[in-house]
Design goal:
With 304 residues, the chain is an alpha/beta fold. The protein folds into two domains: 169 residues, P-loop containing nucleotide triphosphate hydrolases (Rossmann fold, 3-Layer(aba) Sandwich); 115 residues, K homology (KH) domain (GMP Synthetase, Chain A, domain 3). Helix content is 35%, strand content 21%. It contains nine helices and nine strands. Strand 4, helix 3 and strand 5 form a beta-alpha-beta unit. Helix 6 runs antiparallel to helix 8. The longest helix is centred in the last third of the chain and has 18 residues. The two termini are 28 Å apart.
Length: 304
């Protein structure tokens, strides 16, 4: 790579909960780093992932969905999303293919306008609507503010994702790489493993369990002969009744969560895994700053 011709910079992915930010980011870098779910508020921390090619490097910050906070965890998530705009070079604002612009999106538009960042509005989930329905959506968002561009994509199918990458490289400044070429994320493997377990729980439990679950990796160690990695993890919930649902009849649900999570973790670390899951009750942990910090949601880390 010719360092003088390289472009590099930080790009924040922002939007309401469940608009497809994590799916888009995973597609952009070609690996599964951020967890995805049909439920809102899946992403709780800012996740940095790194895309490197011959033109340079884009460091993506996947942020929690911006929403009205109902507890301390919610406040943490909104702060993480809004503070991510302070130190980036551009922003991707993901929206649904809907011509009606609600209060939440208008709030995000004002945040982005105040940031004075180059902003690309990304109309996602175009695979769910007819092409003719996208034209009025773009027209409505054009009225909001003088943003750099509006691009319609399908993160799920990869439609127009390459165009998005091209436009980002045009917007970013010239400069050296922030990370080496092999880096795809600055997230510790433990944290990604915990998030993969939480993803499986969210998906398999359907609507039975609210978002009051966290996952903590208690132990993660490779055996001396290198044949296996042992992982002990705790799924934290807020009520005894939730614990019963997570475990399931005869431990069936917990086994299902563990089996699916183990496959993803093995793909991540490229090694066989022995995964043991336990369920613990911690009442109202989402309103306890001490417990939140213990479970990996630390306000002090948001600016690091």
């Amino acid at each position: 790579m010719n360092e003088q011709s390289l472009k590099s910079g930080f790009v924040a992915l922002v939007g309401r909960p469940n608009v497809g930010k994590s799916t888009l980011m995973n597609h952009l870098i070609g690996q599964k780093i951020a967890i995805t779910s049909r439920k809102p508020q899946t992403t709780r921390n800012r996740i940095r992932t790194v895309y490197t090619e011959e033109r340079g490097q884009i460091v993506f910050l996947d942020t929690p969905g911006i929403h009205k906070a109902k507890n301390k965890l919610g406040e943490y998530m909104v702060s993480a999303a809004e503070s991510s705009l302070a130190d980036v070079d551009a922003a991707l604002w993901l929206v649904e293919p809907n011509a009606f612009i609600g209060e939440s999106d208008r709030h995000i538009a004002k945040l982005l306008e105040r940031s004075r960042l180059p902003v690309i509005i990304v109309v996602n989930k175009t695979d769910k609507v007819k092409k003719t329905e996208i034209v009025p959506v773009i027209a409505e968002y054009k009225k909001l503010a003088p943003f750099a561009e509006i691009i319609a994509v399908s993160a799920k199918q990869g439609t127009n994702v390459n165009l998005l990458t091209d436009r980002l490289f045009e917007l970013l400044p010239y400069g050296p790489l922030f990370y080496d070429e092999e880096t795809v994320t600055d997230q510790p493997v433990r944290q990604i493993a915990a998030e993969l377990i939480r993803e499986k729980a969210l998906r398999l439990l359907g609507e039975e369990i609210p978002h009051g679950i966290a996952v903590v990796i208690e132990k993660m160690s490779e055996r001396p002969d290198g044949s296996l990695t042992d992982i002990d993890a705790e799924i934290i919930c807020e009520k005894e009744s939730h614990k019963g649902i997570i475990i399931g009849k005869g431990g069936s649900m917990l086994k299902k969560i563990g089996t699916e999570a183990r496959t993803d973790i093995e793909n991540l670390i490229e090694q066989k895994v022995s995964l043991k899951l336990h369920v613990k009750v911690r009442s109202n942990w989402r309103d306890s700053e001490i417990m939140m910090k213990n479970f990996g949601y630390d306000k002090k880390q948001m600016d690091s």
